[in-house]
Amino acid sequence: MKKKIVVAITGASGAIYANLLLKTLNRLQDQIAEVAVVMSDNAKDVWRFELDNEDFNNYDYKFYAKNDFMAPFASGSARFDTMVIVPCSMGTLGRIAGGISDDLIIRAADVILKERRKLILVARDTPLNLIHIRNMETVTAAGGIICPAIPSYYSKPKTIEELAMTVVNRVIDLIGLEHESYRWNEE
Ligand SMILES: Cc1cc2nc3c(=O)[nH]c(=O)nc-3n(C[C@H](O)[C@H](O)[C@H](O)COP(=O)(O)O)c2cc1C
Fold first, then answer.
1. Which domain covers residue 89, as residue numbers?
2. What is the DSSP letter of 168?
3. Apex CA 6: angle with CA 40 and CA 178, to 5°?
4. Is 184 part of a structural domain of the chain?
5. Quick check: CB of 135 below 6 Å from ligand 1?
6. 184 alpha carbon to ligand 1 midpoint, in Å?
7. What is the CATH number of the domain that holds 60?
């Protein structure tokens, strides 16, 4: 079955992860039925600030306003399989953990959890306080996956993009898409 995926982008540092995920999903289109995107206001500001562009405007995916509760994935009946929040701010994590569905991102995450589908949070902040850690525990207990924006070095990445792709590749694995990437100890 081809996947229906929601990508939510929030105002944590790491717009590069969102950009690379959107690019990679585009490359894997044959395995995907639909990608829907929603960005918080801060996500747009952080993207402009960190990447010096507005490339989120260049993707062909359908973008939804963050207060558009008429979006299909605001209801479980639309049957989206997976939601990735990338990067995921501590504010968004906290609102999900608290069940505060006051915008489309939190509502969609709430729906994914109640329907027992896959919610992947590419959480980013450092250091973490106890509230962040407890919120991660709560979301994990509810079935969500905390996939922190922590790159790995054992593939010996040479550029910032390659380093960021070590996180994005793990997200693609978690979504369950087939793709080529570095695999530890494989030829
Ligand atoms: C440049 C920049 C970097 C930020 N980085 C982080 C971060 O890494 N983690 C985080 O939780 N918040 C970060 N913030 C703060 C969030 O953007 C802010 O808490 C916001 O309210 C989150 O709302 P949102 O989740 O709806 O996007 C950053 C803000 C700016 C301007």
1. 3-175
2. H
3. 135
4. no
5. no
6. 32
7. 3.40.50.1950
* Residue 13 belongs to a domain: yes
What gap in Å lies between CA 168 and CA 17, rounded to an integer?
A: 6
10 CA from centroid of ligand 1 (Å)? 7
Task: Tell me the per-residue pLDDT of 144-164, one tens digit each, with 9 for 90 and over.
Answer: 999 999 999 999 999 999 999
Cα 40 to ligand 1 centroid, rounded to whole Å: 10
Domain membership of residue 159 (yes or no) is yes
Phi/psi-derived region of residue 156, left when phi > 0, alpha when psi is between -120 and 50, beta in every other case = left
Query: What confidence tens digit (pLDDT) does each residue in 90-113 have?
Result: 999 999 999 999 999 999 999 999
Domain assignment present for residue 65? The answer is: yes
Is 155's C-beta closer than 6 angstroms to any atom of ligand 1? no
The torsion angles phi and psi of 184, rounded to 5 degrees, stand at: -55, 125
Residue 58 is given by DSSP the state G
Please tell me the total count of domains within the chain.
1
Residue 123 CB-density burial (10 A; 0-12 exposed, 13-18 middle, 19+ buried): buried
State if pTM tops 0.70. Answer: yes
Residue 2 CA neighbour count, 13 Å, CB half: 9
